[in-house]
Structure formats: C-alpha cells, structure tokens
Amino acid sequence: MALDFSIIPGILPALLLGARLTVQLALIAVAIGLVIGSFVGIGRVSGNRVIRTITGIYVDFIRGTPLLVQLFLVYFGLPSLIGRPVPPFTAAIAAMGINSGAYVAEIVRAGIQSIDRGQMEAARSIGLTYAQSMRYIIFPQAFRRVIPPLGNEFIAMLKETSLVSVIALEDLLRKGQVVITRTFRPFEIYMAVALIYLVMTLAISRLVAWSEKRLKVVD
After folding, report:
1. Which domains can be identified in the chain, with CATH numbers?
2. What is the pTM of this model?
C-alpha cells in the first residue's frame, strides 16, 4: 500500500484536540508533583531521621515501580478500597502527580545539596530557624538551579501521558488510534502523532532554555 499523507490535514484537528488533553495532563501532574516534590525533597535532607525514612520509602517505591502499574493501582485497585469508581481523568492526574512528585523530590534534594553548607550555617547564626533558612535562603537559590531538570521532568511526563490511553482517556496517542480505526493508515497517523509530540517537546525545551537564561542559572 502506498503512503498517503494527504489525509493528515483532515485528521489534524482531532489530533490537536488530543494534544491539548496531553498538555493539560502533563501540566497538572507536574504542578502537583512540584508541590509534593518540594516538601519531600526538603524532607530528604531533614535532620529528622523519621522524616528522612518516610520520604525515602515514598521516593524509592514510586521510582522503583512503573507508572503504568501505579495508574492501574489508582484506576482499578483504589475503587475496591473506597467502594466507588475513580473517573479516568482523576485517576490519571493522581497517578501521574504522585509519580512526578518522587522525581521532583530528587531534583529538589540535589538542588538543595548543591548550595554551600556555609549558607545554612550563616542563616542559623543570625537567628533564623531551620525552616526560615530553607524558605528565605536555601530554597530560592536551589530553585534556580533545578529549572533545567524540572523542564526535563515536564518533557518526560508529557511523553508518559500516552499511558493514559489504556484507561480510555483520549489523549494524543488515543486520538491517533481512533483515527486509525477509520482510515486504516497506521504509519501516516503514528508519524503525525510522533511529529506533534516532537513539536511540543522542542517548544518546551526552548522555553526552559529561555527561562534558564533569564534567571541567569549558574552551575
């Protein structure tokens, strides 16, 4: 069968609709992950052994298990515990947000540890508490340094949203699969899907580079 890319303009609106959901999922998941990861990352360098242990277990479990399994746990497993079904969108956001939180936590931990220990000692010497030192001195500096890896995390999450197609959410990949059932043109459709993913990831990469330059991130 000869390739026929002339069908792409006709199905592009459907694919872009799926791309919009893909971006929404990634944005919300990484936003949740940033909140979770910030607290967990700080907990990972806490002087409290119990907090370090709890946060370490969370990070190790999430990073050590596939996102697809975590998605199934929320979508198929959680209803058996709470006695009600979990909507696909809610399940996707919850699973991906919790997953992103573990990776962001390690990014935040590395960022905090990259700040010279003398700054914490200086902050404590002028009367700031540990929490105040973290909030006003350490964390703002660490945040600048973690922008590039946070951008990479968003790109990774953007691509991993394709997993939500298994719970019937019509993201970019799922839209492509639906279109294929009507056109019987898998190569052309999947190539179009791949190119849309490429455009989105390149755009995000450029945005991260611009943000890094604006904030004058230095190693």
Report:
1. 5-214 (1.10.3720.10)
2. 0.88
